[in-house]
Design a protein that fits this description.
Elements lengths: L9 H14 L4 H16 L1 E13 L4 E2 L6 E2 L4 E12 L15 H9 L1
Helix pairs in contact: 1-2
Bound molecules: zinc ion.
The site of zinc ion has 8 residues, from α3.
Length: 112
């Protein structure tokens, strides 16, 4: 263990006091550790992340990869574009299966 010295503004100090009192019996070191672990989990890991979508008109019927809804020939679904990046949802490999999402699922993902 090492003692670290850093500066926080008053709002952050109040937040730290509130969280440590509420959840960690007033232990501020434990609170900061939990906050950092939560941040690390939220930032995510390296892998392949969806950075955009390419619209595709179906020449045969297909199902949405995310919600499973069937779509007839002629409907427009969206194929994800993968790039290297970090995210909680990052995939270790580019999926080999056919991946087409419906507009509803694409909108939901982009809003998240
Ligand atoms: Zn869908």
């Amino acid at each position: 263990m090492r003692r670290l010295n850093f500066t926080l503004d008053l709002d952050t100090i109040a937040l730290l006091e509130k969280l440590s009192t509420q959840y960690y019996a007033g232990n501020k070191s434990q609170t900061v550790r939990a906050a950092l672990e939560s941040l690390a989990a939220h930032i995510g890991h390296d892998g392949w992340v969806i950075t955009g979508y390419t619209p595709m008109q179906l020449d045969t019927k297909a199902a949405c990869h995310s919600c499973g809804t069937d779509h007839p020939e002629g409907d427009v679904l969206f194929r994800p574009v993968f790039e290297r990046g970090a995210s909680p949802e990052a995939l270790p490999h580019i999926p080999a299966e056919v991946w087409l999402d419906c507009s509803g699922c694409v909108e939901e993902r982009l809003m998240a």
